[in-house]
Amino acid sequence: MEKIPFLKPNLITLDSYKHYILEIDNSKIYTNYGPLNDKFEKRILSEYFNDSGAVTTVNNATLGLILAISQLKRPQGKYALMPSFTFSATPLAAMWCGLEPYFIDINEDDWFMNETQLEEVLHQLGDEVAVVVPYATFGNYLDLSYYQQLHQSGIPVVVDAAPCFGTTYNGQHIGQGFGGAVVFSFHATKSFGIGEGGLIYSYDQELVKNIRIAANFGYYGKRESIAFGLNGKMSEYFAAIGLATLDVYQQKISQREQLYNIYLEEIIEAGLLQQGWGVQTTKGRIPFQFFSILCPQDEQNTFYIEKFEHHNIQTVSYFSPACHQQKQFMNCPCADLMVTNEVTKRVLSLPFWEEMDRSIVRRIVHTIVK
Ligand SMILES: *Cc1c(COP(=O)(O)O)cnc(C)c1O
């Protein structure tokens, strides 16, 4: 049986970005918010955010999170509240800002941070809260109305929307109009993959301006540092790949949506839902990165990962271990993480790449039943 890899990144190829690279050869501008970066940002703002608010590119989403958290955190605050069910980059970014991650549980259905529990912890911690960092789990459309209120009430919010570039609901992009910061990743394994890269959006143009200053050594106009900063800039080469990726991205999202629906159909047809298997409740148009599924309650994902491997199918389990189960974050404070513990025991991430067809999906789904 031919091996089915978990991911097969399908970044655009040279022919589609060659003309942009030639522009770099002519302009001799290689970075520092050059003309291609400028064009890339303007297109994103207009094509994805209806020209409301502002965006700035960064060289990866982890630095984007660090920059956004460091701009917004309350100076007297100590904790960054976030779900444990997220990628390690979220708590690490908070730690680079001198904060301690404080882990909150997730909902059983959509796997977003549990807002009721969060509210209780906010009450308990009061002024010790520096920032709240929700995660838009696996690209799912997170309705930000609660977080918008929170942000306006003076508790800053930075959304880890790393896999969400292109996620929309009723035609509106995730984060659009949001006053805090929303951070996206363009890493090769994300659906909008360019190698390494990222983007910060906010409706608050002043915030984006300050993040941009911080991402350029704290320089504003002159070569004099006026703010705490670092180097978080995207090079013109990556902006070139980004521009060419924009041209095909809607098509990529459609392909990924289609593949997701094929998975759902095959899972339903195989009767897995009746046998206790579960899927994430999703909303909107999502550029899915992989297919997440929960094995039945009394079983463990590790059993199935081995079973798949035996059938030459590569699967992983995002995010198992969850952050609070990892050595680096084990001593961080946390609320009752009952759902997180249950989901991390059962979650499996199934292969997902753009050239996959129904016969491959069928082989994967039937391996579960075997
Ligand atoms: C991918 C990812 C990141 C990190 O993005 P990079 O661009 O690789 O730094 C952060 N958070 C989450 C949830 C992610 O999935």
UniProtKB/TrEMBL annotation:
InterPro entries: DegT/StrS_aminotransferase, PyrdxlP-dep_Trfase, PyrdxlP-dep_Trfase_major. The active site is at residue 190. It holds the Pfam family DegT_DnrJ_EryC1. The keyword Metal-binding does not apply. Keywords: Pyridoxal phosphate. One of its GO terms (molecular function) is transaminase activity. This is DegT/dnrJ/eryC1/strS family protein.
